[in-house]
Amino acid sequence: MNMMSATECLLQMCDEHFELEDYQSGVPRWCTGCGDNAILAAVQRLCRDEGLRPEKTVFVSGIGCSSRFPHYMKTYGFHGIHGRALPVAEGVKMARPDLDVFVNTGDGDCCSIGAAHWIHAIRYNMNITVFLHDNQIYGLTKKQASPTSPIGTKSNTTPRGSYLEALNPLTVTLGVQNVSFVAQAVDWIPEVLFDIVKAAYHHQGLSFVRIVQRCPEWLPKSLDPWLHDPNKVQLLHHDNGLQPSAGLSRVYKNQLQHDPLDIHRAREIASSTEIVPVGILYRNPQVPCYENLRRSDKLRTPDLTRAGLNAELDKYTIWPQEAKQKVA
Amino acid sequence: MNEMTIQKSMKKPGNKAQSPAGGKAAIKLKEHIVEIISDSGEGAQKCGQSLGAIAAQMGNGIWTTEIIPAEIRPPARSVAGASGNRIRIGSGYITNGGDETDLVVAFNEQVLLGRVRAKELKPDCIILLENMWRSHSDPKVADSYIETYGRLVAAGYKVYEIPMEQECLKLVADARRGKNMFALGMLCHLYSLELKLAAEQIVLAFGKKDQSVVDANIQLLEAGHKWAAANLDFCYSIPALRATEPQIVVNGNTALALGVLASGMEICAMYPITPATSASHYLSEVFENVGGIVHQAEDEIAACAFAIGASYASKCTVTITSGPGYSLKQEAIGLAVMGEIPLVVVNVQRGGPSTGQPTKMEQGDLMTAIFGSHGDAPKVVMAPGTIEECFYSIITARKIAETFNMVVVVLTDAGLATSQQPFPRPKFSETWMAPPVDQSPVPEGARPYDWDETTGLARRFIPGQPGGMHTLTGLAHDRDSHVAYDAEINEQSIRLRSLKLAALQKTLKAPALFGEPKGDLLVVGWGSTKGAIEEAVEMMRAEGKKVSSMHLQFLQPLPPGIKEIMQGFKQVMTIEGNWSDRPEDQIIDETNRRYSSLAILLRARYLVDVDCWSEVRGEPIKPGTIRRVLMGKLKK
Question: What 8-state DSSP symbol labels residue B551?
Fold first, then answer.
């Protein structure tokens, strides 16, 4: 190792100080008032505050409005195919545990076409931070009902109103074995959104954050009841969870003390539809991460491969002198 | 691609015939095909594998083929339930499973009937048949046995009734466990194979269990050997051509897995599917010894996406599947093509379409491999033709994938997957392995898709490289990886991705020709049919026919020189294991006949009138069948 001089150290620290601009790429092409903008702001702030190295950070997404997210980050990004952001991110993390891996996925991407991967990603519990941008509608394809659309939602494929009860991403996630972090945020309370994004990032394991967000284009009024009545938002707080600021508490008086280790209570809280719970529903840092279970400490050198291959070949080899002796 | 050349390393046969126990003179043979069949779970597979291993240890050339019922546990004594193994034993190098069977050991007459009806036995095949059914307490069973026995004898088969059950019960309480070793003992006598080698196989198979199991099996083995010596009036010897260098004996799937091990790839993502899974089973067992990981994903799509994610962030990764899984992966494969992410996809082909014939051999996925995924999605397609090539093709595929940032599809099939054949033991070379992941800063001004105008090649930026930050996207994109809907950029990027195939083609050698460069008929094949085609050609050349063959390992891009080779022949045809319409069918004519896959490719590319013959019977195509077809073609 090279020894660094104090000046070099200082220079490097200076070098490693990041500004918001270091994470900003291009002008987001989301609609004015779209909840994605709020999520982008919170995540860029997280990157700056945590000093994440842009080259060691990867945002993986699928397809949909929310999945444009990586294009607006000046980090590595992977804008893949519909529904498959999670398995791509798992591959990245398995190959490169040294990278910080984030996933941006929408309600169609995660809860419909990619639902199988969602369930299994929770089970693998890899150290990945997942943001479910849930606006309860397909936006990019222009207004079709999604699995999280409230029953009766009128859309281009359900002109007489959607037929089925909405899927609840929180209860589904909390029902899967190995779940280790579930939180809910809403795009219109940026302070809590940021706190949750930060807590999710610091959790070791798969952090699943559902962000209830507005779609001003296709469902402009659907969240109005919650926006206009702060009492319909319930802030979860706990010594091991979030602690809302005094300012916030003045507006959001409906608060509930909830221990994020209590999964049964978390499931009850998650089931509420009239009141939107906001905060950390569940957090269990003890659940093992799949990459840690699977990755070996062995450094993969040519010598190791040579030895491993030869050991295997030995099992199947017929040596000529042996054959000679035995035939004779 | 010299890693793929077969090194024939056999000497001439020894002349000394062995004198078997019992004093009968052994009939010297050049080769024989032996089958052992039973109900599922009676151990015929084990018996057959051991026989193959013993013969290989003796220095014989072998090719073993599994006989697998489609169900895990088909009903006992059912015609479709035959489970077992078919071993072609020869003096010299054996390249395929051969024609019909010369001798069969059957544990009941029903599974035997299945083989008779499938026309797998020679007209004068020797049958060693368990006779316990003759006196079975259920009169229906006894009647069925007696009737079948009579019909087989009448048909000209040489049927020997063997009291296997009765003899085994003298030694063990349950003859169902152990009859296979009695049969192995008989076969060791019949083919003058060393009993000591058979005992070693038993220790290898049961050594982990307690000594009493090993002892009981060895007793059964010896009993079978003794019984055959005392009661059968014939025996054979197949003098061995001895190998001069170490050989390894594995099946195609194990060879694939060993190739993954040797190639320096670190992650294999898969989902269970017949007949590909055994490659992943083996890899799961051994990959971790060299720091590798087998990830069993939640589905085929996830397996492919996981592999893509890992490849994107690190070294090239492999996913192993079969037909239905390959179909499911198509969209993800297109993403790897678009993003120019190196990826090796192994498709162990099986019968299709749909669920088709999961355990059976077919070459039906060539077109899907080349043209699969929507839009223009150029990828490399390779097809190993031997067990040895299964090993080396993975190493080559990994290199091509990483050099060209492309998807490389390796097509094997159920035939190669479960067949065993000795080949020279590979000598590991560090050049097989991927270099370490580049984490150096990206040069100032470099762009994520700096396509070379001539070759379409671009360096790849890997996460962790300072200055290389960009968002890879499946959307049309420019050199900066920025989404581009511009007509010019879209067309240029498609052009440049396509050029990579041409660049690869420039590095390939013309395929080797088997036989003379001029003649009446050229046969072209790909994949597992190699040995059978070459054997048929060899037979015909010995009869003075001017026939040659050419076997293609690269199907996309097709290597240079093919047209020139074809021009040396009056007629060209392919032999393939995929469907082609039969010209003799009433409504089939030149305007509507669907040709076999490779024939279509050759006709389209070279404007040569390439005919084809194919069959999709789910079994490896036999050299004798090919010979008949070629003879017919020459007469036309």
Answer: E
